[in-house]
Amino acid sequence: MDHDELNLWAKRAADWVRDYHAGLRARPVRARVKPGEVAARLPAAAPEAPEPMERIFADFEAIVPGASTHWQHPRFFAYFPANAAPASMLAEQLATGMAVQAMLWQTSPAATEIEQVMIRWLAGALGLPARFSGTIHDTATTATLSAVLTMRERALGWEGVQKGLSGGPVLRLYCSDQVHSSVDKAARLSGIGQDNLVKVETDETLSMTPHALEAAIAADKAAGRVPAGVILSVGGTAVGGSDRLAPLIEVARRHGLPTHVDAAWAGSAMICPEFRPMWEGVEGADSIVFNPHKWLGAQFDCAVQFLADPGPQIRTMGLRPDYLQTPGQEEIVNFNEWTVPLGRRFRALKLWFVLRAYGLEGLRARIRNHVAWAQEAARAVAALPGFEIVTGPVLSLFTFRYRNDAATEALLARINDDGRIYLTQTTHRGQFVIRVQVGQFDCSREDVMTIPQVLAELTGAG
After folding, report:
1. Sign of the CA dihedral running 204, 205, 207, 212
2. What local confidence, expressed as pLDDT, does residue 328 receive?
3. Is 230 exposed, middle or buried (0-12, 13-18, 19+ CB in 10 A)?
4. 187-196: long-range contacts (C-beta < 8 A, 24 or more apart)?
């Protein structure tokens, strides 16, 4: 394929994408295939000779859409969304076409400086103080790992990256049992270890209590262990559990511990001032992550980490051999030094397009609608015979159960086999519950109210 052919097929692909999105409501949300079915339709080895694009595109149409779970489906209410607004798709097409590698300022000045400006725009949109800088990672997992590695190095006096961890002190991290598994992964990959991630007890609101955090830190110090940092949650994955940030950050400060706030999903809602009490005190955090790819329409992958002071993270993550120097520019920002990978995509471009194409007011309207529709759907589910709302709406996330655990699990299977909506499960206080999360970029009230309709039909209540 040459660039003339690319021009032709890119136009055809754009037509296909338009038709795909227009027809999503007619498709089952979740893929209806068994493991191995897709692989069985592909040749065992790569072709020796070139194949015509007509055949390649025809195989794509025949194999891929029908074997995909449709994340852009307006009735995708599972996990959290991974939205792709049309403006973001266009920006990604341009970024892919230019194919820049944004590891250094000199390898892509535009990518670096637009990223810096987008961080400032987003910090302002979320109500964060102007002192916060930051960077764009692929996912919140990488941002949290970067924060935890920085906690480790601060606790070790910056010797871990040079000398290793062997023979060193036992480091401890603190969080609640509502955090995402990426926090557990960060504890493991950082060398701190799963056993040293202390899951502090939570109260009835699913927040760590300052007293319990204080007691856990004091106990570790008394036992000769070294506290390294505190990870706080805003809008936990399972049921939306959130820590009350201000008093917990105050405890961490008294002990000289850095804090990282995981607001991967809920952070986007903070562009709406009325939701900001949910993370009151966040301005005291050292590190904050949220994912614009979850709720702001910037397609996957796009995770923003804000840093009150980037110095400690750069000291932890930065490595500048001779071949990565920018002669005469010692103080220039090279974002590879803020994260794990050396290579970096031009992720800021889609943020620039999305924020301009929809405006903050347009994005706020979507989020406010999702929250209101989730509340309406929860009320409708609660009114159905045999149904119980287990955790009420936190923003646009709520959970329910039907009669008992076995009946709830069986119902979930029927829901997802039915195909009109897609939901997932979690366990809350020993009960099997079904999660509902409203947030797909183009969903409507009618899409959301399909949830109680499907539940009623499948249980004979409708």
Report:
1. negative
2. 46
3. buried
4. 187/148, 189/145, 190/145, 190/148, 190/149, 190/152, 191/152, 191/160, 191/165, 192/148, 192/152, 192/228, 196/170, 196/171, 196/172, 196/225
Closest Cα to residue 369, out of 285, 305, 447, 292?
447
CA torsion angle for 67, 82, 115, 266 (degrees, to 10)?
-160
A 10 A CB-CB count for 209 gives 19
Instruction: Report the predicted TM-score, pTM, of the whole model to 2 decimal places.
Output: 0.93
CA dist 425 and 59 (Å) reads 34
* CA pair distance 230, 187, nearest whole angstrom: 12
Measured CA to CA, the distance from residue 155 to residue 232 in angstroms comes to 18
Q: Which domains does the chain have, with CATH numbers?
A: 101-345 (3.40.640.10)
Residue 324 CA to residue 326 CA, distance in Å, equals 7
User: Residue 423, by phi and psi: left (phi above 0), alpha (psi -120 to 50) or beta?
Assistant: beta
Give the tens place of pLDDT for each residue, 366-395: 999 999 999 999 999 999 999 999 999 999
Sequential DSSP letters for 216-271: HHHHHHHTT-EEEEEEEESS-TTT-----HHHHHHHHHHTT--EEEE-TTGGGGGG
Query: Do 258 and 286 touch, CB atoms closer than 8 A?
Result: yes
